[in-house]
Design a protein that fits this description.
Strand order of the largest sheet: 3-2-1-4-5
Shape: elongated
Radius of gyration: 25 Å
Number of strands: 14
CATH class of the largest domain: Alpha Beta
Number of domains: 2
CATH architecture of the largest domain: Alpha-Beta Complex
CATH topology of the largest domain: Argininosuccinate synthetase, chain A, domain 2
Distance between the termini: 74 Å
CATH superfamily of the largest domain: Argininosuccinate synthetase, chain A, domain 2
Strand content: 15-25%
Amino acid sequence: MAKIKKVVLAYSGGLDTSVILAWLKETYDCEVVTFTADIGQGEELEPARAKAKKMGVKEIFIDDLKEEFVRDFVFPLFRANTLYEGEYLLGTSIARPLIAKRQIEIANKVGADAVAHGATGKGNDQVRFELGYYALRPDIKIIAPWREWDLSSREKLMDYAEKHDIPVEMKRGKKSPYSMDANLLHISYEGGVLEDPWQEPEESMWRWSVSPEKAPNKPTYIELTYKKGDIVAINGKVMSPATVLESLNILGGANGIGRTDIVENRYVGMKSRGAYETPGGAIMQKAHRAIESITLDREVAHLKDDLMPRYASLIYNGYWWSPERQMLQEMIDVSQETVNGIVRLKLYKGNVSVVGRKSDSDSLFDSSIATFEDDKGAYNQKDAEGFIRLNALRLRIAAKRRRKK
């Protein structure tokens, strides 16, 4: 076992990371620094500070990263119209590289020689965290307790907590039926009845949204203003990135928007069923494609669509800090220079409908050409004949060959 002097632990204050904190001290006889990231999970974080102090931690970091999270991670994700396997908006995946980045920054600041996380050996998060750590500090030592200890059940964790006088609020027999992860972009649910892909999620499970059936009978109309592919205002009111997403979450959740139920392919090789609430993200996804539809060149738009699944897989699998993701991001961001304008949306009972889009300076939509009325010579329809014959040439040659046979 490697000699560790000081370790920075990604710490939530819950059962798992509280046990990890004590286990690190006992197992490695090292100093532990705790780091808790506020990325909009909606929980009071000061109790984590109090618990860490009670457990003898001297250096405690609780950082508000909401604006950085949306500005530097969520917005770039949506510039690419990213969906993993056609459905998942990557709410958990996109938070991990930011946490890894800040954890390494703290390790450098306090002179730590190791970092630790509470991700299990079955999931994607261990990969996402550790690829980030190594990309940002290649000599860092990494401790993943779930791959080392024998505390393989909640009961064993509770036994350890009682034995070591670890303050935890959860009591025996009161386990939440779901494993949940939340940030400003989404909340995820796994476990419980969701482990049977045939079972419908319980209505009581959802936290952020009403069911579409119970959503208002009157639609909500909103206008989103875009600048270089990012939303800068809602209904004309200029907002910061985090405030934009917070506001869209409220609007979407109130109208039953953003629920998904997915069986996805984890990077480690297994299939996993999860349910997600991403109300603001669902709105952003629809709106961004709408503004691009009038401001992006056809071939640029199609190339972006070709690249998107690769980009999504890179983020899902933990390669945010890889050179290939950064190269793709530069291409995507260049394409967004002209993605400026306003999109009008109708939110109604779980649906997001685009009902208007305009761009005063960058629109490629020319009504004088597209019109079904008299275009006054703006488009010569006779030109289409040669265009069609040239594009049909290879088809005609193949047809002649078949006829000869």
